[in-house]
Design a protein that fits this description.
single chain; 375 residues; alpha+beta; Porin; 60s Ribosomal Protein L30, Chain: A; 2 domains; eight-stranded antiparallel beta barrel; five-stranded mixed β-sheet; 7 helices; 23% helix; rod-shaped
């Protein structure tokens, strides 16, 4: 056990020199119960009637997660100390492990593998059923664990943990040459609830480094660092949701929906008509002027004006009304300087509703003018 402790300590010391950002990410405490499985073998003589020890005991664990080792913050090494105790024996285990976290919206899951050393102290004498024994048995220990955590605050999490241990605690009973037996404990398990406090090493390790670099950098180099930082900021000049480096149409006007290349597909005129009328109301002329300005500036586009109605009234009447409304908007664009060869129009009646026609609000949305663009 002393050798394993020295190895673990040496690894921590070496790691701290190799990786300056390594530190304790969080500490935790688990409390629960454990069960150790007992098997009595090689029985000879009257010792075959030896009393079995109690297999269930209270279980506690303290551990520390180490941050800064991996760039992937979901992988965290750990140092774990487990203590299990009942009236018959005490089990000490010191282990190091690696754990993989799976971060969810409201909880975290994790799995882990651990290796280390253990010592089982027998307080119980199975030959005479007394508590005057003081025998220590040591073994290498491997373990697998699963768990779930539920964040309470930015720093505290409540968790549930289960472990399965593999070890080889072997106790030899030999009161006389003709009466011998072996009691072995090859595996055990534990389940516990606990709480973990996080120091946030992984989340904090980047920012101080950048600040320190700027503090120690000459003025002219600071300016270059700042310039490089600004250069990586992606701009979206026309505010269409596509950054300029990927925007093939970087002068999109407000009101357009765009594709992944930032180019316009459909322009929606936020305008209304009086009931059964195709006359453009004065307050909506500025919308048509803005669209005409775009077309005169971008002569590579052709546009089709499409008008829709709601479902009120006869189908034939709605079709004719939508055609009239599309035509007056198209003619208004031509009057504003757009070449007639680049503008067409079409009425769609009550087809392709974008909202329900069962409410006044929905019918109002369906009475609309759209324009599509092609090159």
């Amino acid at each position: 056990m002393k050798l394993i402790n020295k190895i673990i300590y040496s690894l921590l010391v070496v790691s701290s020199f190799m990786y300056a950002d390594i530190g304790i990410d969080s500490v935790g405490l688990n409390v629960g119960c454990a069960n150790i499985y007992t098997e009595q073998t090689n029985k000879l003589g009257s010792i075959t009637l030896a009393n079995q020890p109690d297999e269930q005991y209270l279980h506690g664990e303290i551990y520390a997660l180490i941050g800064g080792v991996f760039d992937d913050k979901s992988w965290k090494p750990s140092i774990n100390y487990m203590l299990s105790d009942n009236d018959d024996f005490t089990n000490h285990m010191l282990m190091a492990g690696i754990n993989k976290y799976f971060f969810q919206n409201n909880y975290n899951l994790y799995v882990g593998a651990l290796v280390g050393t253990g010592m089982l102290n027998w307080k119980y004498d199975p030959l005479n059923d007394t508590k005057d024994n003081d025998t220590n048995v040591q073994s290498l220990v491997g373990a697998f664990q699963i768990g779930a955590e539920f964040p309470l605050t930015d720093s505290f999490s409540l968790g549930l943990n289960a472990k399965y241990y593999i070890h080889d605690y072997l106790t030899i009973l030999e009161p006389t040459p003709s009466a011998t037996s072996e009691i072995s404990h090859n595996n055990s398990c534990s389940i516990a609830i606990g709480i973990r406090y996080s120091f946030g090493v992984d989340e904090q390790k980047q920012a101080p480094v950048k600040e320190q670099v700027l503090q120690e950098t000459p003025v002219e180099e600071k300016q270059e660092v700042v310039a490089q930082t600004i250069a990586v900021i992606e701009l979206d000049s026309d505010n269409d949701g596509v950054v300029d480096s990927k925007d093939e149409c970087a002068d999109t006007q407000s009101g357009f929906s765009v594709d992944e290349k930032g180019c316009e597909k459909t322009f929606t005129f936020n305008m209304k008509f009086s009931s059964s009328s195709s006359e453009i109301l004065p307050q909506y002329k500025t919308i048509i002027e803005a669209y005409a300005k775009f077309l005169t500036k971008n002569t590579g586009y052709k546009s089709e004006v499409i008008a829709y109605t709601d479902s009120s009234g006869k189908v034939s009447s709605n079709q004719k009304l939508s055609e009239k409304r599309a035509k007056v908007v198209a003619e208004a664009l031509v009057d504003l300087g757009v070449s007639a060869e680049r503008v067409s129009y079409r009425g769609m009646g009550a087809n392709n509703p974008i909202a329900t026609n069962d409410t006044p609000e929905g019918r109002e949305q369906n009475r609309r003018i759209e324009a599509t663009l092609t090159k």
